[in-house]
């Protein structure tokens, strides 16, 4: 069984970025629906005892769409901080090495996510050679299916921001970049996604 992962903060604690209403819909309805659908699809099948990462890597069709959306949403929520933050640590060094400065990374990340057409996700990933790259994916797709290491993602499906930002995706993205959980991003550098 895949479980609904709780938010790493109180829904009302990020009011200067995303409202409690957004989390009520985004976490408590959208994510819960993906979890429930995934569990219904794996019941009494060979997929029933796989981890979420294994499901994402092995599933196809509706099962992939729902399991990957569970992974993507968990990853997104874990990457958020209720307070404004500053980049630090190994990931800061890598961002400076790959993008020049952290601000240059933010500019490129915001540009990529703004241009990510329709529903999808924008990711910071680590390639097998250790370098970092920004990638856009559509719908439920994510870097795990390409054997890349995800470090950070932003949800650009409209339900992620529309209650608070309406059509102002770029403003949502600028605020997102101030509320990144860099502890989570740094930890992902050492994580084995298998």
Core attributes:
minor pseudopilin epsh fold, 11% strand, 2 domains, 194 residues, globular, Helix Hairpins, single chain, 8 helices, three-stranded antiparallel β-sheet, mainly alpha, 49% helix
- Largest sheet composition: 3 strands, antiparallel
CATH superfamily of the largest domain: Iron/manganese superoxide dismutase, C-terminal domain
- CATH-defined fold name of the largest domain: minor pseudopilin epsh fold
Mean pLDDT: 96
Instruction: Give the tally of β-strands.
Output: 3
- How many angstroms separate the termini? 18 Å
What does this 3D model show about the protein?
By secondary structure, the chain is mainly α. The protein has 2 domains: 60 residues, Fe,Mn superoxide dismutase (SOD) domain (Helix Hairpins, Orthogonal Bundle), CATH 1.10.287; 101 residues, Iron/manganese superoxide dismutase, C-terminal domain (minor pseudopilin epsh fold). 49% of the residues lie in helices and 11% in strands. A 3-stranded antiparallel beta sheet has the order 2-1-3, with helices on both faces. Helix 2 crosses helix 3, helix 4 crosses helix 5 and helix 5 runs antiparallel to helix 7. The model has no long low-confidence stretch (mean pLDDT 96).
Short description:
This protein is mainly alpha-helical and 194 residues long.
Blueprint of the fold:
Blueprint: H1 20-42, H2 52-58, H3 61-78, H4 89-99, H5 102-115, E1 120-126, E2 132-138, E3 149-155, H6 162-165, H7 169-178, H8 182-189
Antiparallel strand pairs: 1-2, 1-3
Helix pairs in contact: 1-3, 2-3, 4-5, 5-7
